[in-house]
Design a protein that fits this description.
The complex is a heterotrimer of chains A (300), B (277) and C (283). Chain A has 300 residues and is mainly alpha-helical. Chain A has two domains: 252 residues, no CATH class; 33 residues. Helix content of chain A is 69%, strand content 1%. Chain A contains nine helices and one strand, in the order H-H-H-H-E-H-H-H-H-H. The termini of chain A are far apart. Chain B is elongated and about 65 Å long. The N terminus of chain B is likely disordered. Chain B has one domain. Chain C is mainly alpha-helical. Chain C has one domain. In chain C, 66% of the residues lie in helices and 4% in strands. Chain C contains ten helices and three strands, in the order H-H-H-H-H-H-H-E-E-H-H-H-E. Chain C has a two-stranded antiparallel sheet with strand order 1-2. In chain C, helix 1 runs antiparallel to helix 3, helix 4 packs across helix 6 and helix 4 packs antiparallel against helix 8. The relative contact order of chain C is 0.14. Classes of the chains: A mainly alpha (300), B mainly alpha (277), C mainly alpha (283). Chains in contact: A-B, A-C, B-C. Chains A and B meet through helix 2, helix 3, helix 6, helix 8 and helix 9 of A and helix 3, helix 4, helix 5, helix 6 and helix 7 of B. Strand 1 of chain A pairs parallel with strand 3 of chain C.
């Protein structure tokens, strides 16, 4: 019984850390403009729309966050092997991983912008100086939380994988969850704020991103508060639910039915989420209504 | 990530001669494994091939929209297909590895459920953001009616786009893809782990308990490497984006089965040769 | 609508870079074998130099491959390179002193077959696919071997899987968990290399691509990875050797990072500090 209570406590802590990590990850990737929405930041100067947005083209979020988290964990593992205190080891590992992340961000911005010289897009050194540190700060939160989750899973819950391998897995999962949830919100709502709300961006408007903001010219730090309104918490909720439910169903039910308990609970949870998703979809169709009148169908 | 202009028509055509060569290669690789290690090695290799095929096939189900999806111009999830599938499959592998001592069947199914759970939560949150954060309902651009629910799609597609969000068939596709990916990755891991647990102690001259961390780590990194190879090959097959099982591109799956089988057999053979030569 | 990639030409031809990279990497890996003859770990830094050489070769290969427009992004090329490379490298470590050559051959075989599968079975029909995937596979295997040497001082299976754990500051016991393989550091090296090999082409993508800038960025990524890998090596080799690797990596990184900024300044349209958006054709 005590084992389970301890396990549930660790699970709750891991779930909370995962929520923070997901939120920080999405905020960081929107401040740096990483991943699929970045194709618009790259495209805009080619269509004549010069801008002051940070063009952080460092792979997509899953492999990038896989690297930062695995690196943080590998360094933490090395420090732990040198008998350094666990908390200090994780902090030091995360700091060094964030240093690598910052350097990659700067080289990506310089490289992409220098290659767009034909279209007159200048390199803004002040953008480089201000965005990089802000992005590094958010990345530190995300990396630290993820490495701590992996440490807890390895040391307190007894998972067989070593720390760096766990961080590889959860880093990629963090990037995938944060990217899937947060990218459309940043790409459509923020980059194309000038388009009508409630519809996708028409293909003819590609490249025409918002470059002039509420006060002056938009830069990427403005995207930080915007993400924190909805995209960040949604990504945090997504990753937090993933970590929490995965650990919860294993800790509570793995000994019931010789392992089948956890499987049945997992299937039930998948069905619950399917029902929630179907409800959301039907609600949208009913409340928002179609864009045009339903056409007469020529073929089924 | 998709900053490269898509190659015009990589072709949905099958290439029967190449697929036949692929099958021959597969048989040769299985034969080598049989010669080198008839019982343990061959069983492990067959398990790895089945796991790899499950991963390759499962990735076809995952709805990925790429860069256009990030702007509400195409349905699907706005991430790269290889890494999204890797994320789901690895989350499944995490759960499956934990259940490893409870037997092969339970571990593989647990891995599948883990991957499916991650995809279910992610797909639900994607729709959540589209509907409540952006005010856009889900609509597919490739079919007139959703195959499962019968909802009609064209009038819910905003003007100038190919669709957006995750219609129900795409959601189901995503979950199936996560289940197959997680189960396949776990199968590869468990097969290699059992092989290494049986052979590493004699090879390294240590006790079973001492060799266990090496066995786990090597099996784990092989599973991850195989996962990524299979996911990238499938990404090449569907040229980057797919809406789900209802997408016409889904019909290309036979090519991917052959490619995944041969690639997994090749890499699995290398994994087995570590302990058998 | 996605970004168009225009024809990217210019610079040193690829075969020259391939041969130079291959020779440099193998030579550096074998120079690190001096560790065995001198019974120290002083020459581990050659592993890091091997990594830099292999990455320079690999990033040019990715440029050649991705210029044809493969339909997916650039990072997946790095992933498949290292996915196949890690398998070849782990098998090759069983062959003692012949490990780098065996890794080369095995990775070439795996890459060849993967290239054939991608080009013919999956019908991608890209002229350079088979050669590029073969090269990338070799690059992946040799880079991982370089990281292994840098962090542990050897490239044999026993060297990579054994380590020691110190109890109460004095008693040292053999432990398989405190090792490159047992501790899961292969995963870290995997991602370090996979991101470092595709980042230079991905970051310098655009109509103004220049080869010298891209290769300088590759060297910078290589030395950056060497910095963090040498910090990790403090746990597995003695402090003096690790400090040598760290200092060489730091000097290399500072130099290449400065050079990269100079080259970016040379190529950029303008280098502005706190200036507004210029008026371009009335947009």
């Amino acid at each position: 019984m005590e084992q389970i209570v301890f396990g549930i406590g660790i699970t709750a802590l891991a779930g909370a850390l995962a929520t923070v990590a997901g939120s920080a990850e999405d905020t960081e990737s929107n401040i740096g403009s990483q991943g699929d929405p970045n194709s618009q930041v790259q495209l805009a100067p080619q269509m004549g729309f010069v801008h002051r947005i940070f063009n952080k083209a460092v792979a997509g979020e899953p492999p990038a966050y896989g690297l930062w988290c695995a690196l943080g964990a590998g360094l933490a593992w090395a420090f732990l092997a040198m008998q350094i205190n666990a908390v200090l080891a994780i902090i030091l590992g995360s700091i060094l991983a964030v240093f690598v992340q910052g350097v990659y961000a700067t080289t990506a911005y310089l490289g992409r912008t220098a290659s767009l010289s034909k279209f007159g897009q200048p390199v803004y050194v002040d953008i480089l100086k201000s965005m990089t540190t802000v992005a590094m700060a958010h990345a530190f939160v995300a990396i630290f939380c993820t490495v701590t989750i992996c440490y807890l899973i390895n040391a307190a819950l007894g998972h067989p994988f070593p720390l760096p391998l766990l961080a590889f897995i959860w880093g990629i999962a963090l990037g995938a969850a944060g990217s899937a949830t947060g990218n459309p919100y940043y790409g459509k709502e923020r980059q194309y704020q000038n388009q009508k709300f409630g519809a996708g961006v028409p293909i003819s408007a590609s490249g025409n991103i918002v470059r002039y903001a509420e006060a002056g010219e938009r830069n990427s730090i403005d995207n930080g508060f915007f993400t924190a309104k909805f995209g960040g918490p949604a990504s945090g909720l997504c990753f937090g639910l993933i970590v929490f439910l995965e650990l919860w169903r294993t800790i509570l039910f793995e000994n019931i039915g010789a392992g089948w308990g956890a499987i049945i609970v997992g299937i039930l949870v998948i069905l619950i989420f399917t029902i929630i998703d179907r409800y959301i979809e039907v609600w949208a169709r009913k409340n928002y209504g179609p864009y045009t009148a339903p056409a007469k169908e020529a073929a089924p | 990530m998709t900053a490269i202009a898509a190659k015009p028509a990589a072709g949905s055509i099958m290439n029967p001669a190449a697929m036949a060569v692929g099958v021959v290669l597969l048989i040769i690789l299985l034969a080598i494994a049989y010669v080198v290690s008839p019982t343990l090695g061959l069983m492990a290799l067959i398990g790895v091939v089945i796991g790899g095929v499950m991963i390759g096939f499962g990735v076809h189900f995952v709805p990925v929209g790429g860069a256009p999806a990030a702007m509400g111009q195409a349905p699907g999830i706005a991430t790269g297909v290889a890494m999204l599938a890797a994320g789901a499959g690895l989350a499944g592998l995490f759960g499956g590895a934990w259940a490893a001592e409870q037997g092969l069947v339970i571990a593989v199914i647990t891995g599948g459920v883990g991957g499916g759970l991650m995809m279910a939560i992610t797909c639900m949150m994607v729709n959540f953001v589209y509907v409540f954060g952006m005010g856009i309902p889900a609509a597919s651009g490739k079919v007139l009616k959703d195959p499962i629910t019968g909802d009609s799609q064209p009038e819910y597609k905003s003007q100038g786009t190919e669709g957006h969000g995750l219609p129900f068939i795409s959601f189901v596709g995503g979950v199936i893809g996560g289940v197959l990916g997680g189960a396949g990755g776990t199968l590869i891991y468990i097969e290699l782990l059992d092989l290494y647990k049986a052979t590493l102690p004699t090879m390294m001259g240590v006790t079973a308990a001492q060799a266990l961390p090496i066995a786990i780590s090597v099996a784990g990194i092989f599973a991850i490497g195989l996962f990524l190879v299979n996911a990238v090959l499938t990404a090449y097959n569907i040229t980057g984006t797919i809406e789900g099982p209802h997408d016409p591109k889904f019909k290309r799956w036979p090519r991917a089965i052959v490619a995944s089988a041969v690639a997994s057999a090749l890499c699995g053979l290398a994994a087995i040769l570590i302990v058998t030569i | 609508m996605t970004v168009k990639v225009e024809v990217i030409e210019g610079g040193v031809p690829h075969p020259k870079i391939m041969i130079a990279g291959l020779v440099c990497t193998i030579v550096c890996l074998y120079l690190s074998y001096l560790n065995v003859y001198t019974n120290t770990a002083m020459f581990s830094f050659f592993g890091g130099l091997a990594v830099v050489a292999a990455l320079i070769w690999g990033s040019n290969t990715i440029k050649v491959l991705c210029s044809y427009g493969i339909g997916t992004g650039v990072p997946s090329a790095g992933m498949i390179a290292f996915g196949s490379g890690v398998i070849a490298m782990l098998l090759a470590t069983k062959f003692g002193i012949a490990a780098p050559i065996v890794a080369l051959v095995l990775a070439a075989v795996i890459g060849l077959i993967l290239g054939y599968l991608a080009n013919d079975v999956l019908n991608m029909k890209i002229p350079v696919m088979i050669q590029s995937l073969t090269e990338l596979s070799i690059v992946g295997a040799l880079t991982l071997m370089g990281f292994a040497v840098l962090i542990t001082g050897s490239f044999t299976f026993t060297g990579l899987s054994s380590g020691t754990v110190t109890l109460f500051g004095a008693l040292t016991l053999p432990s398989y968990q405190v090792s490159f393989i047992g501790g899961g550091l292969t995963a870290v090296a995997f991602l370090l290399g996979a991101i470092a090999v595709q980042h230079p082409f991905n970051a310098c993508l655009g109509p103004g691509w220049k080869q010298d800038r891209m290769l300088m960025l590759t060297a910078e990524c290589g030395f950056l990875s060497m910095i963090v890998a040498s910090v990790m090596s403090f746990a597995l080799i003695n402090a003096a050797s690790a400090i040598i690797s760290l200092i060489i990596a730091l000097i290399g990184w500072v130099y290449t990072y400065n050079e990269y900024i100079v080259l970016s300044k040379r190529d950029a349209a303008a280098w502005l500090d706190s200036k507004p958006i210029p008026d371009v054709e009335g947009h």
